[in-house]
Amino acid sequence: MYSVYNVVHALFGCYNPKMDPSVTFCSFEGAKFLIFGPNVPALVYYAHLPNIIISLCLAFFILFQNRKMLANQVLFGTILSFVIWAFFALVFWATNNPGVVIFSWSMDVLFEPLVYVGCLYLLYVLFEKRDLPLTWKSMFTILYVPFALLVPTRLTLSGVDLSTCLAVEGPVALYYSYFIEIVISIWAFVYATGRILYTANPETKKERLFLSMGVLFLLFSFGWGNIIGSFTEDWKLGLYGLFGMPVFIAFLAYTIVKYRTFNIRVVGSVALVLALCALNFSLLFVQHVEVFRGVAALTFTISSVFGYLLIRNVRNAMRQRALIEQQERALEVTNNEQEALLRFVSHEIKGYLTKSEAVFAEIGEGTYGEPTPRIKQMAEGALAEMRKGVDMVMYILKAANFKKGTVGYEKHPFDLKAVVRASIVALQPLADERHITVTSSVSDEEFTMTGDESKISEHVTRNLIDNALRYTLAGGKVHVSLSHCVNGDVCFAVTDTGIGITKEDMRNLFTEGGHGKDSITTNVHSTGYGLFIAKQVVGAHNGRVWAESDGEGKGSKFVVEFPRE
Predict the structure, then answer these.
(1) Neighbouring-strand partners of residue 546
(2) pLDDT surpassing 70 at residue 228
């Protein structure tokens, strides 16, 4: 095993012929199972083992909840980099072999900046809901290349101090790495502050604030610990910087429970329980009574905080569940009564309208004698209005069925690309009538999905394009796009330069009969049920739909995301 170190360090300049790793130079006993040895301070196990256990479990748990989500992948990569760093830190504390010290310390220098890059990457993905721009990735790559090239040279580590069995750091490890970490920390602070200040939604602002606090605390504490160790050679004091990871996980768990940051709630409780188990497990490695008391006090404090959060979370969940059950019972009675009344009224009105529709159609066709041009024009106009009335009643009835969950779906594989293009062609006459320019960008990739083609066509693609046309004034533009999202799912989007959506109206979207404050003046025939039905259809296909707008008069964008097959 040690001959590998000889070859590596001899090739790249770190190996000293007088420092034969097969000989024990340090004055303490060698390591057992890589990480256990008499030279390891008790605080090392307490600082490293809980972090490794909690971080690794949480990272895998979140990743396997949804391996396709970019945010989950970035979080996993960031935490994995930290875990690798913490493991090799344990190795060089435990070993008395200079070759192993050099190797493990080199691995730490290599993985340490990845933690910082990953944290900034994670903030961006969670805030922007998309991947990093190419310019950012290029900058990260340029900053990281020197580590990959210089880590096995004397510029990074020049040898081992045999009196302490610690590596002697070169300019890359001692200056360049900390320079990069400080730059990325400041970069993350400025970016997070800007995004928080310019976020209008109070709940989103709070979520971003908690996430930023956790990430920044991790970066600053982690950097502080390493810098203290490097420049004072008091690595025991620097160990306290590792407690930034549990704080970060605590903030992350809180945002998951409170705001569903990763669209899962149970992981917050899992993280708290794992933290308690890992903290208590690490106490087994504290050998001195004096140290044990201090560590036990810290464990008690952290356990109390985590326990309080867990109890409060469970208690709130029980209260909410009891309230929801009570409201569900009351709502079920009210819904049944309203549904019966709605069906009776809608059925009667539909009957009257259908009869009137038939009469006006017969008048226009001359069944009762050739009508005069004036009468024919009036009959055709009345017929058109009657048909709109019938359509409105049908929309209300459909919405009731969707709400009740009695709508059936005939799912089979179909080409979503063809559906989108057909919807654009079908609504082109309306666009020409309203003098609106319609453009599209449909990727050449395959978009075959399994679902109810007719319902997706009628209630999703056509409905969203139709809405965009009706809420955009003459001379405006509507753009339709179909592509694959960052996480590989299918994204259908309709963007317009229309009347926009205010913050107040945004709350009413996708609700039953929901109308914007001024939308009825732009589209007088709106039923308020189109978006509600669209959301039900998308949800039945395990997708999601949402709207974006910068405000009144600034246009809007509706996005539908279907899961990848």
Answers:
(1) 559
(2) yes
